[in-house]
Structure formats: C-alpha cells, structure tokens
C-alpha cells in the first residue's frame, strides 16, 4: 500500500494532467511523458464463447471478458513520444481538420488506485475516466473508460512512462477520435 504522500502526489499529478488537456495546453502536457512513453488504447470487440450472440445476451454468464484487443493487436491509439509530438505540432498548423473547430473537453478522473513498485521509483496508477467533448454547435460525445498508467519519478516529478486505456464503448458514435485521453 502506498503511503499517503505518494498517493496524494499521484492524484494531484493526474488532476493537473486533466486540466492541461482541458485548457488545450498540449505542449505542457507533452512534458509529462518520458521519452520511452507507450500510449495505447485498446479496441473493444464482442467475442462470444461457442454460442450465438442471442444466447450470450440471454445468459450473460456465457459472455467472456476477453473483449479488448491485446498490445500486439489493433488498438485505437498506439503511439510514442514522436507521434504524440507530431499530433500536437499538427494542431498548431491549423491544418488538423478533425479539430476545426477545436474540441472543448472536460476530463474527469476518478477511482484512483496507486500500486507501488518495490523495485524502484515507479508506481502503477489505475483510474476511471469520463471525457466530455463538445465541438461546434451540436457535436457532443462522452467517452467512458479505464486507464492504467505507469508513472516514473524523474528529477522529483512524476512522468508517464506507459498509458493503457480501454473505452467501455465498442462502437464510437463520434465523427473522429482526435482528442487526447
């Protein structure tokens, strides 16, 4: 179990990150990552064990939890520091059509659980999130899911070394997925 100071510092770090995203301070947000970041969002699938979809719906106990893609399979995001930096740089050009007009977001982070790593200055932070996105006059989207972050202390400050995200939705109604989580 992490001590209260570590828990509080991780919580504050995650809340600050959410604020940076909501304020569109993407260059500052990039500074929160290590150089070896792996930023990955699994895709959801519906896999039913040896039965039809109708049977699985009638008997939920037959539904399998193996419904997210693995790290070596297709993900919605599979990025490193170079691709994240390129995405942020593209937003600066005015040529990121998926963000014209820009999205307005609100990131809500909850149920934070910190698991220390006994071997060094790293912790794993689990949390749930809701991201509300509004764009233009009528577009509104909600993204609900969970994150697992591997945080590393670098020069006394937390940095994100790995982020694994899973959305609860398996079909996205949004026109694009151009925001950051």
Give me some keywords for this one.
Nuclear Transport Factor 2, Chain: A, 6 strands, 181 residues, 4 helices, alpha+beta, globular, 6-stranded mixed beta sheet
Word description of this protein:
The protein has one domain: Roll (Nuclear Transport Factor 2, Chain: A). The protein has four helices and six strands. The two termini are 26 Å apart. Helix content is 24%, strand content 38%. With 181 residues, the protein is α+β, with helices and mostly antiparallel strands. The protein has a six-stranded mixed sheet with strand order 2-1-6-5-4-3. The protein has helices at 4-22, 26-30, 53-58, 81-93, and strands spanning 33-42, 75-79, 104-116, 122-135, 139-154, 157-167. The protein is globular.
Helix-strand blueprint:
Layout: H1 4-22, H2 26-30, E1 33-42, H3 53-58, E2 75-79, H4 81-93, E3 104-116, E4 122-135, E5 139-154, E6 157-167
Parallel strand pairs: 1-6
Antiparallel strand pairs: 1-2, 3-4, 4-5, 5-6
């Amino acid at each position: 179990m992490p001590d209260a100071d570590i828990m509080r510092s991780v919580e504050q770090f995650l809340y600050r990150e959410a604020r940076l995203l909501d304020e569109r301070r993407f260059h500052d947000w990039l500074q929160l990552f290590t150089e070896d970041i792996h930023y990955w969002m699994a895709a959801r699938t519906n896999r039913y064990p040896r039965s039809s979809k109708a049977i699985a719906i009638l008997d939920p106990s037959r539904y399998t939890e193996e419904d997210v893609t693995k790290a070596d399979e297709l993900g919605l995001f599979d990025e490193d520091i170079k691709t994240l930096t390129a995405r942020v740089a593209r937003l600066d050009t005015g040529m990121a059509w998926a963000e014209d007009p820009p999205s307005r977001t609100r990131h809500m982070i909850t149920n934070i659980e910190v698991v220390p790593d006994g071997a060094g200055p790293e912790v794993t932070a689990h949390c749930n999130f809701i991201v509300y996105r509004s764009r233009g006059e009528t577009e509104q989207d909600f993204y609900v899911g969970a994150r697992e972050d591997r945080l590393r202390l670098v020069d006394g400050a937390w940095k994100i070394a790995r982020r694994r995200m899973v959305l609860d939705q398996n079909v996205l109604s949004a026109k694009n997925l151009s925001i950051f989580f």
